[in-house]
Amino acid sequence: MNNEEITLQKEITIILEKKLNLKQIYVTGDSNHIKIIAVSNIFKNISPVERQKMIYKPLISMITNKKIHAVSIVSYTSNEWKINNK
Prior knowledge:
The chain contains three helices and three strands; from the N terminus they run H-E-E-H-E-H. The chain has helices at residues 3-19, 48-64, 78-84, and strands at residues 24-30, 33-39, 71-76.
């Protein structure tokens, strides 16, 4: 992993931490494909599509400016995270 990838991952993490109340966030990948795993109870009773929209919204300028090409998002509530990641 090079410095550019690390910087991009940190930038995405900071943006999402500021805009969303996330308990945990994991960002991996490079500008061609970013993978985001977000954990927060803000996702409780929210559909998967709406969860993705919540995460995309703060990143839209990075996407439209082609700083990020593709984004893969997986989101969990705290309870879902415990169940799926034993």
